[in-house]
Amino acid sequence: xxxxxxxxxxxxxxxxxxxxxxxxxxxxxxxxxxxxxxxxxxxxxxxxxxxxxxxxxxxxxxxxxxxxxxxxxxxxxxxxxxxxxxxxxxxxxxxxxxxxxxxxxxxxxxxxxxxxxxxxxxxxxxxxxxxx
Length: 132
What we know:
Number of strands: 5
Order of helices and strands: HHEEEEEH
Radius of gyration: 31 Å
Shape: elongated
CATH architecture of the largest domain: Roll
Helix content: 40-55%
Strand content: 15-25%
Largest sheet: 5 strands, antiparallel
Number of domains: 2
Distance between the termini: 108 Å
Number of helices: 3
Strand order of the largest sheet: 4-3-2-1-5
Structural class: alpha+beta
């Protein structure tokens, strides 16, 4: 009986020593989940943010924009915050004309650019000629 008890305790020790190798599949799954989250959620969001910042940096007079407050208007004037290259271009002040009102907002408050000045002018001229 003592031999049987000793044999069962040796078998128990063997199962515990084999448990260390079961950590590798869990670690691989964890790494795969993190990679999937990165490529599905984080990377596209970074690309979208970069694209938005590029569109804000390329704003010019006559562009039709929507502010974060929902105001739709046309850019009338852009006042740069500082002339040196170290300044953040998103801090520039932009004057927007909406109907008969004018608003001064920071460049970062512009949520999206609807159209450029030439496209908006062409659209306005085509609607005015078709209306008459």
